[in-house]
Amino acid sequence: MKDILINVNPSDTQVCIVENGELVEFWVERKNLTRLVGNIYKGKVQNVLNGMQAAFVNIGLEKNAFLYAGDTLEYGEILKDVTDKKLNLRSGDTILCQVTKEQFGSKGARITMNVTLPGRGVVLMPQIDYVGVSRKITDEDKKRELIDFVNEVKPDGFGIILRTQSVDCSKEELKEEIAELVEKWNRIKESTITKPAGSLIYKEEGVAIRAVRDMLRDDVDHIIIDDKRLLEDFKIAFASLYEKKPDLFVLYEDEVPMHKKYGLMKQVAELLQRKVVLANGAYLIIDRTEALTVIDVNTGKYVGEKNLEQTVFETNCIAAKEIARQLRVRNIGGIVIIDFIDMDNPEHSQKVLDVLQESLALDRTKTSVIGMTPLGLVELTRKKTRSMLESAMLQTCPYCNGDGYVLSDEVMASKIKVKLNDVFACPDNKSVLVRLAPSVCHKIFAYRLLEKECAGEWRDKRIYLQSDERMHIENIEVKVLHGAIIDLPENAKMLF
Q1: Contact between residue 381 and residue 335 where contact means Cβ atoms under 8 Å apart
Q2: pLDDT band at residue 285, thresholds of 50, 70 and 90?
Q3: Which of 121, 296, 468, 472 has the greatest number of CB atoms lying within 10 Å of its CB?
């Protein structure tokens, strides 16, 4: 059983692809973030850098977009061999372009002149005369039948890519969709005439429409939506489908939140954790770096039943299946390094790779497994199709600024010592109240970390520690107490 659940919140829209109760794909789009991929702009070339075989194009954003020579068009074709090829563009030229990669940090968005308009069964390429077929359609007879049909119905000069879902569509549906996409293209062309350079010509659909368009196949039982307005949008976007299968779209009206009703709250929360516990008690650790994602496999509590080699082999096989799911559900893209547990048996190593390959075959995003190194590391690359989950649901820690660490309790005790020495440098300062995080306070008393100083240079001083849950672990607040009568908080404790 497979369902697509769409949850609309004030801050974001979440799409869950659920198979037999298990979350296999998760899309989220925050409403305060502008998504660029898929948008079409009328751009103006700012400068051409033939030494980099690229151009920078003003599309109306803060940063100019980046256009690589391999993403330009010449005589109705994409340049295939760009070696020593100069761009057929000059500063001031206006071009129609589409964003293929979001802007990030100091880098502007990446664009292409090969504009595409995706539908459920086909993708229209209005500027290239070409017919292509998804690699996941393996039936050669069906593939030839689809190609022949599309060549008959598509307008001259247009290109079509048959998506995997085209197998589930009737010929009449494909014909209607091609006609609708051609009409959409004609409206886009008309807009470019009147709008100035640097204008948005066409905005890609929101995450809910995109997810259903890209994921809906015959194996989907229901599309469950908890927002009436969005349901009306679906009726328009998928009019022919809604007419034929009205029961496919279901409005969720239960008072119990959708994620709770379908047991997804815990599964979604776990997507943000470094540690992923496997069914047998073993676990994965998933870490992101600037250049790649690293996944470490550990046996954890699993001790096996026969011998060490068999225990390691079984753990690696279970991990391979879960890693494929994690890549898909977290939308991890780019380079991935997997550190499986070392295996002495070469047959076991190959079997683990086979299990990984089979599990990755369920992923609609292209993934290439490079192989296993002598150190037992598996290298693979997964195509970046959209932002990874972290970018939509996490933000840089305001305390550690993304380092991922904070100072230890022992180090903080040393910092308190330095601060108190500065305070007690003034002879008039006899009593102080130190407000600090509970863990630091506990460690100081439990391990008597400042006992030596209290018995020595601070022996005539009164030091009170106040544990405060509101204090960040790296923050310390020292207040000098004056007067014969001291007003202390109830939870303040005198240090030794």
Answers
A1: yes
A2: very high
A3: 121
